[in-house]
Amino acid sequence: MIQPTATTSHLLTIRTPEGVFFSLPLAGPIVRCMAWLLDAVCLLAAAKIIQMGAALLGVFSQDLSRAFSILFYFICYIGYGIVLEWFWNGQTLGKRLFHLRVMDMRALPLRFSQIVIRNLLRAVDSLPLFYIVGGLACLISRHAQRLGDLAANTVVVRTRRLAAPRIDAVLDRNRHNSLRAYPHLAARLRQQVAPVEADTALQALLRRDLLTPEARVDLFALMADLFRRKAAFPAEALAGISDEQYVRNVVDLLFRR
């Protein structure tokens, strides 16, 4: 099971089942507050639009106008974070600008229920005003989590800007790639593979010597199976190559044209 193993004041260290450790920089209260302020500006702009709509409804009925305002204020306040964090993989406008991201505590895919829980508990974290409860929770919690993060088992991390991939470190320009003989299938593979899947395959090749032999075989078998389901190359294109070499050929197709 992927699990957090240790935390410094700024890093969360996670251990994978293969025995690989990696660290994620945690976002502190100050940068999270700055991201929240930007999100608050967006919510104020939405509130202004709602206010204009309520004013128009007020011509017909004041009760309808008040009901409209209360309902849509609530939808914007709660739905803003839920919708953006779900579709932007843990980011809102503020988090994206400050390079922050919500993620599962164990580095597993973020579930919709986790996003809903952490956003519903904003009402508690914001008490008594200006997120005092949430800010104090971030300061004293081990992983810089507010109450919503503790309930949802999530953390907010800083996203690193990725350097250009070191293609030549894992690919030999002179090596024959049997997959290139089928350009229509190569094009389909490029369409089907998500950027995160391509980057994961590249990083696995870059770090293959850090894995135990058993973990290395299992990891590349899983990756090869994933890519084979994306595009079915004929048997003659796969004859005599290992799963690791197949993944290497796929990475060659994805990163080199």
TrEMBL record:
Coiled coil: none annotated. It is a multi-pass membrane protein. It is found in: Membrane. InterPro entries: RDD. Keywords: Membrane, Transmembrane, Transmembrane helix. Residues 27-153 form the RDD domain. The chain crosses the membrane at residues 34-60, 67-88. GO terms for cellular component: membrane. This is RDD family protein. The lineage of its organism: Bacteria, Pseudomonadati, Thermodesulfobacteriota, Desulfobacteria, Desulfobacterales.
